[in-house]
Amino acid sequence: MRSAGKVSLAVLVSRVLGLVRDQVFAFCFGASQLNDAFQVAFRIPNMLRDLFAEGALSSAFVTVFTRKKAREGNESAWALARLMITIQYVVLGALVILGVLFARPLVALIAHGYVDQPEKFELTVLLTRILFPFILLVGMAALAMGILNTYGRFGLPASASSFFNVGSIVVGLGLALIYDRNFGEVAMICMAIGSVAGGALQWLVQVPTLRRLGFAYRPKWDLRDPGVRDIGRLMAPAIIGVSAVQVNVFINTVFASYLQTGSMVWLAYAFRLIQLPIGMFGVAISTVSLPGLAVDASLFDRVAFRERLERALRLNAAFCIPSAFGLALLSTPLIAVLFQHRRFNAYATEHTASVLIAYALGLIGYASTKVLAPAFYALDRTMTPMCVSLGSIVLTICLNLFFITKTDLGAAGLALTTSLTALLGSGILLAVLSRFLGGMSIETWKAFGKMIVSALVMSGVVYVTLFLHVWFGVNDSFLGDLSRVMVGVGTGGLVYTGMARWLKLDEVLEVERSLLRKLGWNRASEQN
């Protein structure tokens, strides 16, 4: 829990900076054609990042690297790291070259609706070519993060994406202010260059810590190495298994390209808010749990594995469930406070809020998958998440066709599809894993029930606060929306914590005691 707390704090800072980055884009470009083009262009290398870097490779590499370090020692593990860095240089470098050369057909594939809009299509192609080196840079950052995590270094790797956001804002906005203060096409190109600079910073900031641990890079190439083969064997199905949400987002992009201008931006900004709890809880808990799960699996300790996994799932759900309710209830004032400035108008706020509500329905599914899928890889059972993910992709296509052709939900329908498939996929993974481990404990199921009851009570109180704002005549100005968000979040947090105390929800109480100790309130913490 201490390690997860460090990662959660680092991810919180990163996600907040990511919100600031999106606010800069919203302020400068609004939900415009320029912003739509950037969202598509950045989505292509971003999806490949999850497929080949931070998702599949990270899970497979951490599992094999941890196993090798535990069984054969540090030097053998360092040799594997050198091999993988060299292979990644070659593979991702070639991928970057191919991406730059074939940017045009790639954009036509992922955003076919742009083909009939020549100006928008050409800008998206240009931005894609500029952004493609990002995949190589973030791939190297992911390997560095995996190595540091296995040595118990969680804070800095989790903070690395903060440097990406800072670098992309400072460099991109700085260049835009120099070359295009009207924030037209040239300014958007500058923002794309800034994103690549941020990716480089995300990698380089981790290098000094690697060196202090004793790692020194020397080029090495051996595709027949047993460790490389193990990583490749785990990666092949993991490429599909870990990245189901991103693949479904890719499918959504194809459908969204046929919708009205701004749809890409609404989907991106709403999902950014969903990523905050996913990163703080799902990713953070998965990051610190995976090395331990890999050790338990390598020692064939099924009891320890189940206890560690259950604890991770309970801790994840204890905060993602109320987050989902809160994001749905406060969607409109929250979007207005964060993005409704200058070129991002009330119309865009309304549509982004509806998309956020649809995404919030599947929040617990997204976050749980971040914990469950790596557990299968630690057990060397990669086929299950792969099959579940393949099924979710097929379901996404079918549901998207239904919502787009049979309803007027638009972009919200695409987000609803992603939520439904995430919930179904995580439910299947949990059921299969529970059966393999001999069933989840009754304490875990009771804890889930307590969380849902606490979140429902919290939601009722928050709804009353929103009603009182209307009753007292608080208008829809920035200050009015800010008041709704502040009062709603504050009241909701107090009510949820109070319910956790009453129902003795251990995961919430332990975090509360930990925070009290950090603040120096030891006496209060002991009494609690």
Distance between the termini: 18 Å
Largest sheet: none
Principal-axis shape: globular
Query: What is the structural class?
Result: mainly alpha
Helix content: over 70%
**H-E order:** HHHHHHHHHHHHHHHHHHHHHHH
Describe the structure.
There is one protein chain. By secondary structure, the protein is mainly alpha-helical. It has 23 helices and no strands. The protein has helices spanning 2-29, 33-52, 56-72, 74-101, 103-110, 118-131, 134-150, 155-179, 185-204, 207-212, 226-241, 244-256, 263-298, 302-329, 331-339, 346-360, 363-378, 383-406, 411-436, 442-471, 478-503, 506-518, 522-527. 54% of the residues are buried. Residues 523-528 have low confidence and may be disordered.
Give the helix/strand layout.
Elements (H helix, E strand, L loop, with lengths): L1 H28 L3 H20 L3 H17 L1 H28 L1 H8 L7 H14 L2 H17 L4 H25 L5 H20 L2 H6 L13 H16 L2 H13 L6 H36 L3 H28 L1 H9 L6 H15 L2 H16 L4 H24 L4 H26 L5 H30 L6 H26 L2 H13 L3 H6 L1
In short:
The protein has helices at 2-29, 33-52, 56-72, 74-101, 103-110, 118-131, 134-150, 155-179, 185-204, 207-212, 226-241, 244-256, 263-298, 302-329, 331-339, 346-360, 363-378, 383-406, 411-436, 442-471, 478-503, 506-518, 522-527. The chain is an all-alpha fold and 528 residues long.
